[in-house]
Amino acid sequence: MTRLRPVRTSDGRQLEASHVIAVPADEAWDLLVDTTRWPEWSPTIREVEATDRRIRAGTRGRVRVPGVWLPFRVTHVDQAERRWEWRVVGLPGPGHRVDDLGPDRCRVAFELPLGAAGYAPVCLEALESIAAVLEEPGHDSDDVEDERSEAGVDGNAGTDVDTNA
Fold first, then answer.
1. How confident is the model over 49-58, as a mean pLDDT?
2. Shortest CA distance to 112 belongs to which of 101, 129, 97?
3. What is the DSSP letter of 159?
4. Where are the annotated segments for Disordered (predicted)?
5. Confidence of residue 115 (pLDDT cuts 50, 70, 90)
6. Tens digits of residue pLDDT in 80-101
7. Looking at the domain 2-151, which fold is it?
8. C-alpha angle 127-27-110 in degrees, rounded to nearest 5
9. DSSP run (H or E) holding 124
10. For residue range 12-27, what is the model confidence (pLDDT) as tens digits?
11. What's the CA dihedral at 49, 54, 60, 63 to 10 degrees?
């Protein structure tokens, strides 16, 4: 079920768009942090050029949306909490989070400042796409683990970068 609700976070009041998905949290996290896969689930991103395939604090790049390329910079990644934040064209973009709800269940959430409420429909559509990608027949979690091993994933736990895109 996809939902949109107001929440209070350490950053103040925000909107949270979320969807519960029947896959392990690590699989959803791997999809969100792999820049080559963003066009698979984002309704606006057509192409990505990034300094890192798997994001980390400091990853820079640009995303192609209809008609224009937009620069981005990942400002925070917390592997343990499965949460990352970024800035797009120097402005805060939606935060991304995956909550573990059990062995084969997780919640994927986008955190939006109240001023970005107009972007909520895009986030809701992205969540539906993420669920479709992860729950499609033939999706194999072993492929995800192989990609992580090949990429040399080391955690990047709790790293911050305080710069603009």
1. 98
2. 97
3. E
4. 135-165
5. confident
6. 999 999 999 999 999 999 999 9
7. Alpha-D-Glucose-1,6-Bisphosphate; Chain A, domain 4 (3.30.530)
8. 30
9. helix 120-135
10. 778 999 999 999 999 9
11. 40
